[in-house]
Amino acid sequence: MSLLAHSAEGPADNRAYLLNNGTARRYHSAVTESVTRISAKIAATAQPFTGITVDGLTPTVSGVDLDSPLHDAAAALDELEEVYLRDAVYFHHPRYLAHLNCPVVIPALVGEAVLSAVNSSLDTWDQSAGGTLIERRLIDWTAERIGLGEAADGIFTSGGSQSNLQAMLLARDEACRRELSREGSPVSPKFSTPPPLSTSFERGDPHEQGGPPSRLTDVLPRLRILTSECSHFSIRKSATLLGMGAEAVIAVPSDDTKRMRTDALAAELARCQSDGLIPMAVVATAGTTDFGSIDPLPEIAGLCAGYGAWMHVDAAYGCGLLVSRRRALLTGIERADSVTVDYHKSFFQPVSSSAILVRDRATLRHVTYHADYLNPRRMVEQRIPNQVDKSIQTTRRFDALKLWLTLRIMGAQAVGELFDEVIDRAADAWKLLHDDPRFEVVVEPQLSTLVFRYVPSTDQDPDLSDRVNLHAREALFASGAAIVAGTVVDGRHYLKFTLLNPETTLEDIATVLDLIAEHAGGFLAEQPRPALSAR
């Protein structure tokens, strides 16, 4: 029987599955076998997807009896081939052109293997030690790249949506603090200017927890978030989760390049002021999901300063510019109060690897709670760094290790050069689309996304054009030969390329365009011809 096989007959045998000094050899063998298989699978992948349907795969997964263990890692990996690996969507393939999913760099995968085995939890020092210091150093490094200043801080998160949620929470509570102080209302410790971070309040006493002061319920309904109509849906979702409702979000129109119009923003801010509303935050986007557009950050920063609004920059996509030769595209981000970065997009990291950065570390007090069993208040006085004091999570993976090893092995410049490659490729692809009469493209990209549609003819019914593009995308996905995304622009269906793979060539893109046109043409050929009118 190989080291991968094990028949558990009792508690003592079950302990053989635990990773420790006595089972390290078994662990090494199992992981080696797994890596050997997945590396062979990736090497042999000829297209990004098999085209399997939900109905086609569901019986295979449902047929697995989870109450009958195989007691053999090799057998489990054989089964995994059937339920997952065979039909997985492979982001590393150059014709995967759909969403903001990147191929991952090998140094980060080394980090993934290490962090999974050691299994540190980054909530407190006594569960992570060096892991805490590594994460804090990476936060400092990122803040330095952004230019947030000496008082900056932050925390790793699960992704851009969580980072945006935390940013809006901080902005909300800062707005409440300022408004209540201005009105002379009682302000609970939660909203007051605190001593050092983590000393603001503890669990147990409702007043100490920031129980609503007498005027807080009057302030909350007046809060507004202003953001581009092209911004990420997580901003509205955050407003809902924070008890403000999606109606608290004001969508600011964008210009022809899909960037926020600052004249419209100024008008909305003035309207809020005249209507007695409080612009608690303006969310600028540095790389919109659909168009890759970067809002005019310096102008937005000036308006935020003038109206006393928190400026948040959602740079989940565009954060790769921090290490790019195009760094100037982010000019103005250094004036933000908070910034979202997704390393698992343009830093080529495995999911999850993201962070929220803030200009003033004191604002993180709004997510600080003390628990006697975990991070009692005395630890602050002892200068023990507990990352849970800054996070809306408690248990948290050591995802920072992936980025640490990437920087230590490859270096930031190498990561930036990879991101520059995909931006260059998108520029070439835009020219290809612009010059192809079969397609229309919405906007010339700043980053690496292209929104376009197949155009049957100039006199075609718009509804039929929608159906053609929807069909082309679905048929391409079903074939598995390539994967593209879709979106809606001005009520009409469009297709989208998201280029994050430096291995994707212009030839790959041209081939996918031909496949789209082929599927579209086939669909049109099956449509009934309009009857000729009688003369």
TrEMBL record:
One cellular component term from this protein's GO annotations in UniProt: cytoplasm
Region of interest (Disordered), ranges: 180-217
Any one Gene Ontology BP term: amino acid metabolic process
Transmembrane intervals: none
A GO term, aspect molecular function: aromatic-L-amino-acid decarboxylase activity
Cofactor list: pyridoxal 5'-phosphate
Keyword set, alphabetical order: Decarboxylase, Lyase, Pyridoxal phosphate
Pfam families: Pyridoxal_deC
CDD domains cross-referenced by the UniProt entry: DOPA_deC_like
Residues with the N6-(pyridoxal phosphate)lysine modification: K345
Residues making up the signal peptide according to the UniProt record: none
Alphabetized InterPro entries for the sequence: Aromatic_deC (IPR010977), PyrdxlP-dep_de-COase (IPR002129), PyrdxlP-dep_Trfase (IPR015424), PyrdxlP-dep_Trfase_major (IPR015421), PyrdxlP-dep_Trfase_small (IPR015422)
Family: Belongs to the group II decarboxylase family.
The name this protein goes by in its record: Pyridoxal-dependent decarboxylase
Native organism: Streptomyces glebosus
